[in-house]
Amino acid sequence: MFPFFSYKTFFFLLLSFPVFPARTFPDPLTELTVDVRNSTWHDFGKFLDAGKGSEVTGMSELKKYFQRFGYLRPTPEMNFTDFFDENFESAVTIYQKNLGLPVTGKLDSDTMTQIVSPRCGVSDTTHSLHVTRHYAYFYGEPRWVGSSPMTLTYAFSPEDMINYVALPELKTVFQRSFSRWSSVIPVNFTEAKNYSSADIKIGFYRGDHGDGEPFDGVLGVLAHAFSPENGRFHFDAAETWAVDFKTQRSKVAVDLESVATHEIGHVLGLAHSSVKEAVMYPSLSPRTKKVDLKIDDVQGVQALYGSNPNFKYSSLLESDISSSWGLPLERRSSKWGTSLVIGVLILSLCL
Ligand SMILES: *[C@@H]1O[C@H](CO)[C@@H](O)[C@H](O)[C@H]1NC(C)=O
Ligand SMILES: *[C@@H]1O[C@H](CO)[C@@H](O)[C@H](O)[C@H]1NC(C)=O
Ligand SMILES: *[C@@H]1O[C@H](CO)[C@@H](O)[C@H](O)[C@H]1NC(C)=O
Ligand SMILES: *[C@@H]1O[C@H](CO)[C@@H](O)[C@H](O)[C@H]1NC(C)=O
Asked: Rounded to whole angstroms, how far apart are CA atoms 145 and 207?
């Protein structure tokens, strides 16, 4: 629908204060403890159970988190206060609905636990006009267009790769990630030799790498991918990418396959899901693998591309019976609805 635009999506790993994660941990390898959540919780405990009318020092910083992820209207000229006002209450309420949490309008422990857990950085509220079930699409529902069955080619950058994971091993990881999606939709992914003509271009980059979205070093942004039909698929080379946690012992190691699988969902046109178990859910813990597509992921991508003739729901149902059914459909619109989505568009558009 909007062939000139593509959305950029991010995968974040947030271990400390979410707004400036990289800056608060200049040396995360030494500062982080095994119990990441517990040490982070220490800083956030003061907000626990704050609700309308509360005033807590530092609340303005927390509001920036909600603004960053599309829940509070951007206010460039006005600074946030530490006062828990009506606007913030409705932001918290929408956040709780979007993430499937109990809706209390307060910073209760479920909500605070969610806030401190690592997450993907694309705004959740890109959903608001296009929710069908729990999965969601980018505005305009862009997808790859072609005759079905479709074959998309992918290629690895000849220069911009990491050297501590052997290339054959790395390619196997991507093969597995792509095949999870191709087993459910009539789309094949094949590796192409020619990088410049491939549909999907994969590379690992440091800092400013020419697409207007510089990477930020260790932690913070992990990867970003462009929505259909752009195909750029970039990983932050500064992260410690893990293929096997038995050999990669770093506490900040990030599972390559989990991030690749999540980002391929974005490459195909899926935004974030509110189903916790889904691959497209916006958070992932460090040293964690989350690679199996759930019913919600499958329904979302099949609504865009149709079903692979060989796909059988029964195989998924056995493992996923509880997670995706039964919740009523939520229209995730907010009172400022349209203008919020436009705000998100402006922030995330990339020509
Ligand atoms: C978190 O830290 C507190 C105090 O330091 C400790 O009592 C508690 O057991 C820790 N929780 C976990 C899950 O490790
Ligand atoms: C917002 O904060 C900045 C930096 O603290 C300050 O320079 C600016 O004057 C403030 N703006 C308003 C409208 O208070
Ligand atoms: C994918 O490719 C294989 C062989 O390359 C072919 O047999 C199969 O029909 C293709 N499937 C789709 C859905 O394109
Ligand atoms: C790779 O693709 C580009 C763009 O389609 C083309 O110009 C170039 O000749 C191709 N290179 C090779 C080695 O096939």
From this structure: 32
Q: Give the tens place of pLDDT for each residue, 64-73.
A: 778 767 788 7
**CATH numbers and ranges of domains, the chain:** 17-116 (1.10.101.10), 150-320 (3.40.390.10)
In whole angstroms, give the CA distance from residue 15 to residue 219. 8
Helix (H, G, I), strand (E, B) or coil at 126: helix
Binding residues: 120, 199, 209, 211, 216-217, 224, 234, 236, 239, 262, 266, 272, 280
CA of 198 from ligand 4 middle (Å) equals 10
- Model pLDDT for residues 99-137, shown as the tens digit of each residue: 788 999 999 988 887 776 655 545 565 444 333 357 778
Higher pLDDT, 214 or 91: 91
> By three-state DSSP, how is residue 203 classified?
strand
Task: Please identify, by atom number, the ligand 3 atom nearest to the C-alpha of residue 150.
Answer: 14
Q: Look at ligand 3, atom 14, and give the residue with the nearest C-alpha.
A: 149
One-letter identity of residue 192: A
CA-closest candidate to residue 122, choices 141, 137, 102, 140: 137
Measure the N-to-C terminal CA separation of the chain; round to a whole number of Å: 15
Rounded distance from Cα 201 to ligand 4 centre (Å)? 14
Kindly report the number of other CB atoms within 10 A of residue 313's CB atom.
14
Helix (H, G, I), strand (E, B) or coil at 189: strand
CA dihedral 115, 117, 123, 128 (to 10 degrees): -70
Q: What is the pTM assigned to this prediction?
A: 0.61
